[in-house]
Amino acid sequence: MFKLDARLRNDTFPVGDLPLCSVLLMNDAQFPWVILVPRRAEVYDLIDLSDEDRRVFQQESDQLSQVLRKLFSPHKLNVAALGNVVAQLHVHHIARFTDDCAWPHPVWGRQPAQAYTQSQADKHLAALKAALEL
Predict the structure, then answer these.
(1) How many angstroms separate the CA atoms of 62 and 79, rounded?
(2) Closest C-alpha to 91, from 59, 122, 133
(3) 122-125 contacts at long range (C-beta below 8 A, 24 or more positions apart)
(4) Which residues contact 3 (CB under 8 A, 6 or more apart)?
(5) Beta strand ranges found along 39-112 (DSSP E)
(6) Does residue 26 sit in helix, strand or coil?
(7) What is the 8-class DSSP label of residue 94?
(8) Coiled-coil annotation: which residues (predicted)?
(9) Cα-based distances in Å from 29 to 13, 16, 119, 126
(10) Residue among 114, 94, 120, 115 nearest 105 (CA)
C-alpha cells in the first residue's frame, strides 16, 4: 500500500493527483519547485516502476515541465531524482533562473528554505491546479 514519506508530506503542499503521481509544491518560495511522487509502494528508483508506469511517469513529468515553463518562464528546468535522504521515489521539477539565489548551483544545501506565505502558496497552488487540470 502506498504511503507518502513523512518528510515529503511535511515539506510540501499537496497540489493534487495525476493518474500515476501525486503532485506536491515544495514549501520554498525561492524557487518554483514541484515534486512528482508515483503512488506505488516500495518504489525507490525509476527502474522499479513497471514499463507502463514508466511511460505514464514520463508523460506526467513532461506535462509538469511544460506547465512550469508556461507559468514561470524559467531559464532552465532542473528535473532530478536523487533519493539520498528520502528513499521513496520522488522527482524534483525546479524552475531555475540565472538570478535566483542558488544559480548556477543546486537549490538544496546552499541556503535555508524560505516558507511561502499562505497567500503565496494559495496563488501557486491555484495556478498549478488550473494548468494541470486538477
Answers:
(1) 10
(2) 59
(3) 124/25, 124/32, 125/13, 125/15, 125/25
(4) 41
(5) 76-80, 91-96
(6) strand
(7) E
(8) none
(9) 12, 19, 11, 15
(10) 94
Tell me what the pLDDT averaged over the chain comes to: 97
Where does the pLDDT of residue 109 fall: very low under 50, low under 70, confident under 90, or very high at 90 and above? Answer: confident
Provide the 3-class DSSP secondary structure of residue 37: strand
Cα gap 129→17, rounded to integer Å: 10
**94 and 33 Cβ atoms separated by less than 8 Å:** yes
Please give the CATH architecture assigned to the domain spanning 6-132. Answer: 2-Layer Sandwich (3.30)
pLDDT tens digits for range 58-84:
999 999 999 999 999 999 999 999 999
Residue 114 has which C-alpha cell?
524560505
pLDDT at 132 over 90: yes
